[in-house]
Each structure stands twice: as structure tokens, then as C-alpha cells.
Amino acid sequence: MNIHEYQAKQWLARFGVPVPGGRVADTADEARAAAEEIGFPCVVKAQIHAGGRGKAGGVKVVHTAEEAGKFAEGLLGKALVTHQTGPEGRIVRRVWVEEASRIARELYCSIVLDAAAGQPAIIACGQGGMEIEDVAKETPDEIIVELVDPLVGVAPFQVRRVARRLGLSGKEVGAFGALLKDLYRAFLDSDCMQLEINPLAQLDDGRFLVLDAKMNFDGNALFRHPQIVELRDITEEDPKEVRASDLGISYVALDGNIGCMVNGAGLAMGTMDIIQQYGGTPANFLDVGGGASKEMVGQAFRLLLSDDKVRGVLVNIFGGIMRCDVIAEGIIDAAKEIGVTVPLVVRLQGTNVEQGRELLSKSGLKITTADTIADAAQKIVQAVQAEEGRA
């Protein structure tokens, strides 16, 4: 789960992390009032769940209340297109107005969960700001990576090692170490997957200040953090993913045109891979889980077909706890209710597979069955390509 920059700063402040003062505004008038209260110069920043806002024109230093209001008015209710949003952009529904800072230097600092190492990793760089992606690509040796033992935490020698490579010395090292430990505590206590500070500003008086913050939380741990759950902004999420979350279905929207309904994350990934191997593109990742009911299968099927991009559907189910006849009943009921007009290929294996196949064959629906994953993928790709050729 992601949260907005202003929410991340407010959350980090609970852990003693230094952040600029600011106010959130939903209207141009509120932005004017916030700027008056904060003083000038101040910064007005679009709030969307995407990076690259500065380059896209979503951040501006303003010197009057009228300028703040005019800039906010130009953002609110409109789509901001960045390199992370795609061409459709994201609608700006609020702005953050904060104090301007006297910046001497911009750094980069993040803490992420390194899945390969099974440990949190501190990632830092002496060049922060809008060009950090270019630094990582062109001069990767400047990126500092320090794995943290979760049983020990951030050790003093690690603070010194990172600080030295950042070019810090004297009292700067102590101030940076205190900040890093507060960030790590926020990361750990909040069950974060990613905590990114870019830029981390070093002010002209030597202090450090978080100028931008991105936080992503482990969805499986949110039951421990009701206060974080309250920060969720579903307007920033794909409506289909929100609906799937409410239904308890694992779903991620993709850019392809073949809808996939599978049970088991590994089988779902394999299904998407083999669709691509045969020249197709998956429209989603959808895992209904190992013990889904007939009703959940029906809901998942409806969810797939609610995507306008879907030109065909592949159902790939291995019946273990979940019986194939139950899957078949759910597919048939949903297909009859919706009136499926796109090609539908179903591959069933496992418990009660013969009963499931018999139900499909007697349903009166135009359903193509398959015995193997490869056979199913090849059939759905060919069917979709044929439909597109006729169109």
C-alpha cells in the first residue's frame, strides 16, 4: 500500500524524523490560506502516487498567496503526466504547501526490503533529486548499498561507512546517523517494503531535512496498523484492484488483452509467461487462491470481463482443495449472467476434473477446453489474434 508524500512526512515525524512544516489543501483557496500561514517563499506540490512530479511541472516555489492559489488551481482536478504514470497521468486531488528550505546539498537515502538477501538494505547516494535514475544508470558505482542485520539494526560502523562515502565528516556524521536510525525504526515498526527520501536535504547550517518521502507498506501486515490503513487513498488505485481487494482476490491490472484466472501465484506467473511465449500479452495477474468458492470464482470472472482491454479469457485451474466441478459451475453461472462475447479457453486438472469438463461441455456456452498449459495458451492467443484480424 502506498501513501501520499504529505502523509509520509506526517508519519515520519512521529519517529522524530525532521520534516518541513506544511499544510495539505484540497482547493485553490485553501492553498492560498496555507501559503499565507506558512510564509514566503514556500513550495506547492501536487500529491499523486507517482514520482517525477517536479519534472512534470507539479512542484513550484511561490512568493505570494495569489501565486500559490493560481498554481494550485492549475493542478487540482487535472491529470499530471510523469514518467511513472503512463500517458493517461493521475488526477491531482490535493496539493501540499510547505516551508521552503535553504538547501546546501541534496542527497538520496532509502531503505528497502532486499528479497534476495532476506534483509533490509540502506541505499544512499551523494546525488539526490530529480536525476537519481540517471545516476543509477550511468554511474552505478556511486550508489551505496548497505545490508542491515534485522537482529542488530543499523550498526555504528555502517553509519560511518555510508557517511564517509557521502562525503560527510565531523558533526555531520552524528546528525546523519541519528536520522538514519530514526528512518530505520520507522521502516521496521511500520512494516515497510520501501522508505525513500529523495531528496534528503543538507541545509546550509549542516542539519538534515526530508524534502520528499515515499512509503510503501507490506499489505500482509496492515492488520497490525489500523492507523496506516486509514491513510489509504483508493482514488489513486485501479478500481478493479480495489474491487478485488474487497473480495479477497489477488489481482494486478496489466497492459495486455488476455484475461487470466488462475489459482496459485506460481501457476499464475507461469500462465502469464507462457501466454507471452506464444505471442500474447496478459491483461492481469489474478489468483483466486486454493480454496475459492463458486461465488468467488464467479466474482473473479466478472472482474476480468469488466476490463475493456480484455479480448479473451484463459482460465487455468489445478483442482486440489478447490474442486474442478465447482470452478466449472462458477464460470458457467458468471458467463451466462454476463453474456460472454470474447473467446474463452478453460484448462482444468485435478480433483473432479472429469465432472468439471462435463459441466462445461453441456453448458451450451462457447467454451474451448485444453489439456495442458501450453495448449491452453496457444489456443487463447490464436483465438484473440483471429478476433482482432476480423475486427
TrEMBL record:
Keyword annotations from UniProtKB, A to Z: ATP-binding, Ligase, Magnesium, Metal-binding, Mitochondrion, Nucleotide-binding, Tricarboxylic acid cycle
Organism superkingdom: Eukaryota
Pathway(s) it belongs to: Carbohydrate metabolism; tricarboxylic acid cycle; succinate from succinyl-CoA (ligase route): step 1/1
Catalytic activity: succinate + ATP + CoA = succinyl-CoA + ADP + phosphate
Record localization: Mitochondrion
Residues binding ATP: K45, G52, R53, G54, E106
Details of cofactor binding: Binds 1 Mg(2+) ion per subunit.
Subunit structure: Heterodimer of an alpha and a beta subunit.
Similarity section: Belongs to the succinate/malate CoA ligase beta subunit family.
Protein name: Succinate--CoA ligase [ADP-forming] subunit beta, mitochondrial
Organism of this sequence: Geodia barretti
